[in-house]
Structure formats: structure tokens, C-alpha cells
Design brief:
CATH architecture: 3-Layer(aba) Sandwich
Number of domains: 1
Strand content: 15-25%
Number of strands: 5
Radius of gyration: 14 Å
CATH superfamily: Dehydroquinase, class II
Distance between the termini: 12 Å
Low-confidence stretches: none
Helix content: 25-40%
Mean pLDDT: 93
Shape: globular
CATH topology: Rossmann fold
Structural class: alpha/beta
Amino acid sequence: MNIQLIHGPNLNLLGVREPEVYGYDTLDDINASVVQEGEKLGVTVRAFQSNGEGALIDAIHEARTWADYIIINPGAYTHTSIALRDAIAGVEVPTIEVHLSNVHAREEFRHHSYLSPVTLGQVIGFGASGYIMALHGAVAKGKQS
């Protein structure tokens, strides 16, 4: 199984940016833990991060040629990007949405996700471990197929 792990804007600042909200793990820490857990499960994980919407869309498009699943933390684009939503719908690669914080317990504008209607599911509010949960979810779904 192959999984494309995608991180959106400002996630390159993890560990520094508002650690009381997003935690102290860096993006490199998270990527390493997901890749390592993937290896234990016999899964190949490729990680990608961009602050630009177009680059994220390109990564989603490219994933359709090799990935069985996408795990994405779209950051603030969750609440604004119809383009990311359309990219996910267009590639038809099952996608799991991850958020480090509980977006429903935060500002009201964070309560809506343009992506969730086209994703397999969401993991919200569990910090960095949410990525591992999403990985296990993808593997479990893959075994059901």
C-alpha cells in the first residue's frame, strides 16, 4: 500500500507556531513517525508540505498515479478551498482529513470544511497522533477492499 501524506500552509512551523494549540512536535517529527509506523505496517508513505494551494493540488493530482490513499492536513485551506475539494473529488483516491486541534472547539470559521464531503473521514483534535490514527484507518480500509 502507498500513501501520500500532504501538509498544507503553515504546518512547516509546527513546534514553533502556537504550540499550546498545535503541539511541540515538528513537521519532521510527524513525518518520521508516520513513515516509521508505515514501515511497521508494510506501507510506503511519502510526505509533502506546501504553503501554496496550487502545489497542494499538484501533489493530489500526482498521487492518483501511485497512491492508494491520501492523508491530508489542509490547514486553513480546509475552510476556504473549493479547489482542493475539487482536486480530491477529481482524483478518486480515498482521502482522510487530519486536524491537530479540535476545529469544532475553536473559532466558528473553522467549523466548516469544504473537503469533508469528499473525504473518507476525519481525524480531529488528537494532535500528532491523529496522523497515526489516519494511517491505521487507511490500512484497515485497504484490507476491507
